[in-house]
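Hey, quick one: can you model this chain's 3D structure?
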Amino acid sequence: MKAADFPIDIKDHLFPFHTDAQMAYECIGCEAHYPLDRFLYTCPSCEGLLRICDLTFDRLTEIPGPVWRRIFDHRRMLNVDGLKGIFLFHEFIFPIIPLDAVINLGEGHTPLVRANAELSRWAGVDFSIKYDGLNPSASFKDRGMASAISFINYMIKVKGIKELLGICASTGDTSAAAALYLSYLPHDVVRSVVLLPQGKVTPAQLSQPLGSGSTVIEVPGVFDDCMRIVEQLAEEYEVCLLNSKNPIRIQGQKSYSYEVAQQLDFQTQNLVVVVPIGNAGNVTAVMEGFLDLLRLGIIEELPLIIGVQSEHANPVVLWRERGEYRPVKVRPSVAQAAMIGNPVSFPKVSQLVEEHFRERFFALQVSEQEIIEGMLIANRHGHVVCTQGGESVVGLKKGVEMGLVNANHTVVVDSTSHQLKFAGFQQMYFEDSFPAGYDIKPREELRNRPIAMEASAEAIARHLGLKKKKG
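Sure thing. Here's the predicted structure for all 471 residues.
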């Protein structure tokens, strides 16, 4: 649809008007501000975590919330590359980035699929699953990477950067997204490097950065060990860190909340959002995104956020139970992307909960057995859910059993990645081949295996118990 065909009162707002915004890094601790003329991850003054701050955000309040709703609904019909994907919400994500610097590979606007009646009865409540595994690299990480790589592209075009190395630590999804999006930039300017914990990334996930041409380095240990190394590299060398410690990543991931709100016609009263917690960047972005919408009057109420962790990697759950935060030593988990014992974005979660979500944030713990079976059961009812999605589904079930969620709620469950990335865990369940450290014992009714038979219609019909047609 062309801009000339839109209502008169919307035309002036279809294209971003907030391009003269003043944006800065802001420390969540000492509240110091630093210009966005470099890549910065922690506060130079107090070493606190940073967020991206629009110093002119209040200007956006001049447009009433209902008008913002109409702007975004109409903007979806535009055929303009720079306003597709997460940058449909350009004013809220990165208003200083011109449209010709935006990198869009088809991310965002993932479907919200209603669970069928059987699965809803099993969970105890009606709910919908947001399929973020349908992003280009098959995970939600593309939201943050579209934001980060668009900013890099902006720095190349506007600041004249001639050479850049993008680096990240990963359990699989971050590396796939970083390698994919970096590969879209000029190869004579940008290089891509990822650090993975050796033997703790699925073959499908390992294939992705390799296929995108990234330099893949495997190191002994777990994700936290990789993260320590890339943090040191970012501190001491000229590299761009692409983990969620980089606040530019969080900006893009906020689009999840904007989309959920839009998909629900911006009606968030009694909304519950269930998300897995890994490095805590995603749950941070989800909360910040809904706060943006509330500040602008686009929604009337913040949702209840339920964060879910495996009992094998549960520092946020223990923090909510004990009131004191301590990193934990992780054990093997099928929710591999969430197998993180010291989430780097925890200080942001803590502050957001304290200031805005005190009565609206719960952290629930589930077992490894529940996670893998949550994935299998959801997928047997017509869904495409990863192990982290399984973690969210059984987290919802537990929330219903605890009385946190009831039939009056509108429920959205986050499936962060594509099921095929974790098909190996499904196969291990079917074959009963999990190592002891996973604490998983398959139930026969959930196992499934191919059946070898002779090439005979009659034999197959007998096996299936089919009856011949009459006459």
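One thing worth noting: DSSP finds 17 helices and 13 strands in the chain.
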